[in-house]
Amino acid sequence: MVCALGESQALCIVRDLSTNQDGSAPIYECHVPGSTTVRDFVQQVASHFSHEPQNIELILSLPKGEEVKLKESSDETLQSSGVRTDNNSRNSFILQTLKTARARASPRAKELDEELNLGA
After folding, report:
1. What is the domain class of 9-118 according to CATH?
2. Which Pfam families does this chain map to (predicted)?
């Protein structure tokens, strides 16, 4: 992403908890302009971790323990969503797959869908 001269940058650290099976979580660290849309950031993160953007949820952890869920369809900027762009600020995100995506990937969910389709 290209940013205008002097535009504030956000340090973003994303932990992918969707594959957290052994206690470790892959991490993606990047600097993005504060004017980046949530949609573009979600797509960038999804691409990095080889996910489909519509199947993930990004949660921004704010300093006072609050959390903000970023919507893939949002045209809001990262900065207006609560991402900090001042010096030395670190923005922590959690990536997890949506429950519907997890359910679709589950073998038991597929069996239930097949039973429903067969009228069993």
Report:
1. alpha beta
2. Ubiquitin_USP47_N (PF25985)
